[in-house]
Amino acid sequence: MASLPSFLDPLPERSINGPYINAVFNHPPPLGPAHCLWWPPLKPGMRIETVVLFIPGMSSLILTRRIPDALLGNPGLLDFYTPFLTALQDKDLTENLAILAQAHIDHTPGIYHDTLPHSRHSLYAQVQSAIELFDTTVAEFSPARVMLIGHSVGSWVALQVLKQRPDLVAGVFLLFPTICHIADTPNGKKLSSLFKPVPRHIIARLSAVGKRIPLCILHRLVGREWPIVQLKVLRELIRSPESIRATLRMGDEEMFEIRELDVALLKEHRQRLWFYFAERDGWVGEQKALILNSFEPDVGSLRITYGDPSIPHAFCINHGEEVAQQCHQWLLEMNLSIVN
Fold first, then answer.
1. What Cα–Cα distance (Å) separates residue 4 from each residue in 40, 53, 62, 251, 329?
2. Mean pLDDT, residues 243-262
């Protein structure tokens, strides 16, 4: 496919009539294939000025609307983010912007490498996959700027890329960032037990029930405010025991591995960081204050946006347009600072 970068392989079985292309990035062993989405630049034939590399959050199972900020809190499959990323590119009027999003390995239903060990699901395997894709993107599109957007735990992964490639990352947008002490957040305390081996095995087995749930019943369970297109993405997840195991295994590691805030990293690269916080966020909780206080006495100079109270952690379900508008504004600010 001519409009794909050379390092991506098309995925025709997931073809969608939209501005983006489904593809696979085949990481060398032991990582294996990762699902990707590619938004080609709006001005074909012209040199790409900026490439946005998007890293999603973790896919939490969404079982009931009664805990809206917990089990509805982390829709991490790439397809949940297509309205947000499409809206972001649609606002590109000043430069030739391309967007590349990569799923966490083994999280996308139907895209697995069954011959590889389960260690590929590890949190640090996902970090390595993001670094490999970043390096490949830089090599392909140089001298274009490559910047990162991370949502939820994707923000933590993006910071690890920045830590390993400090001279190459143009900027990092941290959306609803879960970058420290996740186990101590309100949702971490409520849900960490579900990520353990026995509960996640049981939950994965329940996917057999999920295959029989009609779309109309699922709509009632999660809430009528969910768009049908997003509901279909959710249905794909709950019908896949492999994806469920992978996401819950990764969630278990997050509880143990993402603890102390890397204050030195944040301070060193503060000029390349942008933060977006929800008014209330069960996946961030009191850690928001910890993050901001780490910049004292210069917290006032940080690039911080406090989202509208109506925009939740799971912004990509219904509020992609609003967050895309903010990211677009940040892109303009980043370009202006580079020029100056």
1. 7, 15, 33, 32, 27
2. 90
